[in-house]
Automatic annotation (TrEMBL):
Domain VWFA residue range list: 312-513
Database matches in Pfam families: C2, Copine
CDD domains, alphabetized: C2A_Copine, C2B_Copine, vWA_copine_like
C2 domain location: 107-245
Keywords: Calcium, Metal-binding, Repeat
Lineage: Eukaryota, Metazoa, Chordata, Craniata, Vertebrata
Gene Ontology cellular component terms for the protein in this record: plasma membrane
GO BP field: cellular response to calcium ion
Entry protein name: CPNE9 protein
PROSITE patterns: C2, VWFA
Family assignment from sequence similarity: Belongs to the copine family.
GO MF annotations in UniProt: calcium-dependent phospholipid binding; metal ion binding
SMART domains referenced in this protein's UniProt entry, alphabetically: C2, VWA
Amino acid sequence: SMPGTKVELTVSCRNLLDMDTFSKSDPVVVLFVQLSGSNEWKEFGRTEVIDNTLNPDFVRKFVLDYYFEEKQNLRFDVSPGSQSVLFGAQDFLGQAFVALGEVIGSQRGRLERPLTGVPGKRCGTILLLAEELSNCRDIVTMQLCANKLDKKDFFGKSDPFLVFYRSNEDGTFTICHKTEVVKNTLNPVWQPFTIPVRALCNGDYDRTVKIDVYDWDRDGSHDFIGEFATSYRELSRAQSQFTVYEVGWWVKVRAGCTPCGTDPPLCLQVLNPRKKCKKKKYVNSGTVTLLSFSVESEFTFVDYIRGGTQLNFTVAIDFTASNGLPSQPTSLHYASPYQLSAYALALKAVGEIIQDYDSDKLFPAYGFGAKVPPDGKISHQFPLNNNVENPSCAGIEGVLESYLQSLRTVQLYGPTNFAPIINQVAGTAAQVTDGSQYHVLLIITDGVISDMLQTKEAIVTASSLPMSIIIVGVGPAEFEAMEELDGDEVRLSSRGRYAERDIVQFVPFRDYVDDSGNQVLSMARLAKDVLAEIPEQLLSYMKTRDIKPRRADPE
């Protein structure tokens, strides 16, 4: 998958062990990354060695691709710099294990962890600072028109369109945008369009941007009308005034002909036999005017997390009778001494990533579709910890423990209703809509929804709130209704209302059962797929509400 962004890690240590006899230690930090789905660690890089200090602040950074939907485990080994990576235990200064998401999700992107690994000694601490690389994240919106372009069509005028190219370091050009075609006119006005600044000029404001003007032909052999060259810096002046560019081309009809003149600055020696070569003559093909140019910052998921947005994770588990008796090996809730149930595996895979972004690590957890004590009434939102006033569990392990306890105390029954729990989480999400809180509801189920109409209505209502819904389908059932809720192909609607955003992601658990038996890899793939859309869904909510990230609190 494509990385969401690049993150730069800065490393410091405090109060390291002093292993040198006549001076302080000369520490270096080596970063290892755990390969996805395995226990193998691979060296990623190392800092410089800093002589004679127990409190180093390293200058050399680690730049990592960051994927929200993956658990990116990191290991930091600290050793005396004079030793190789394979240093002996007597020269080992300590190590720390951390997930990249933990660093990003910590306050202001700063995380301090104790170093361990030297028995009987305090090894000090390691301090990590995560900063998203800027990478020129501005987005430009511009609009252009043209005047008196060359007529290229025999029976009509021209059908002009523009092609934008950014220049590369080696002098070549890469296409980065095409406008729409405006039919049968020599004075077209193109629609406004947006383009990232990094796509337009790689963040170099003075790099050449070439714009070609073509006449569209149905067979694809578009006629060249002319070209002009500019730069991002020059384009940006249109924020205060119109900018007019002369469109033209240099004529070359015979080998060895050298184009004349130095204006405009860009000459590609265009071959067009319709024109006769006239020395020191630049052929004008009309003008293009930049009507408007505006710049906005493109905020990222990391911007909001670092600005204090908290992800609040809620779990809802299907306790309907179609799952089978939990005590029987055929049940989807059955957990053997050697393997967790499908429900527990899905919960653990997704929850262990989400929890890195929740500061209090307290997760409301509910069951639905069961008869609950003491009166045996059917409930579609009973707390797994049996505490109606405070349904939150401590960490994913606390959720798992409460889930297993509920299996022993409730009677699996039915029907399979989603709407009550969706409406409950939506009600909580509606209380804080300023961007400081975002809710993720994980529903794990085995069957066909019994309240489809009510569920669609609940999701359409929730689509305007700061929340997302993940549905994991376990077991062999068909899940066509879930695909409809997902809304990837057709936007979900209910009673004439359409969902404001796509907030549902559905995956069938059976697609992630690895025939090789590699459960770790299977669950990593599951978590990756169900969480991949969360950053974009969060951003879509913030954008529709014009909510900008808060600045991180000052030191």
